[in-house]
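step: validate -> pass
step: tokenize input -> pass
step: predict -> running
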Amino acid sequence: MIDYWNANWSTMVVDMQQHLAMVLASLGIALMIAIVLIALLMRRPNWLNGLVYFFSLLYSVPSFAFFAMLLPISGLGMRSAIIVLTVYCEYVLLRTFITGIQGIDPALVEVAQGMGMTRRQAFMKVQLPLALPAIFSGLQVALASMMGIATIAATINAGGLGQLLFEGLQTQQTVPLLWGTILTIALTLICAGVLKMIEWALTHRWKAALAKN
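step: predict -> pass
step: emit ->
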């Protein structure tokens, strides 16, 4: 294990950077799309449920098949990987975000609007902060899922830690497989820890803002 790291550490660091870039780019894009869709369609629950159903169908498509279908459109490389991972993220995020926001007491929104807030202001200042636990729960689930799925992106030359796994499979060596697995788990735990800290900071800031008011 140590000898393999000493001989290949520079390549492995690049693989980690590529893997992290794929996952974080997909997660960030999916997060922005989810927030915009929910903000626009909050008053149309049937449309939101239809979107969740649509993305659930896409989520059920095997990743190998999804990558293959995109090759004629976006070609080999990280672009195709990010598109597939974003679609998978979108289903997880929409489902958890909608559940979290719909679980908020409607009376709180009515009170906020009674104080002069518009629907958008009530969404941003009341519903969104109250839904933070559900939102970050969805982000963590999506993060863990995408870290695993992103390893398959190596089959379309997108890089990432999947290259170590496929190297181990092709050469029938255990060491690259172990390093690929260990580094994927480590990245997932580190990113999950960062998400927890961001959630704590945002929750603390929102509570402090409420206390001032």
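step: describe -> The domain at 2-212 is CATH 1.10.3720.10 (MetI-like fold).
step: cleanup -> pass
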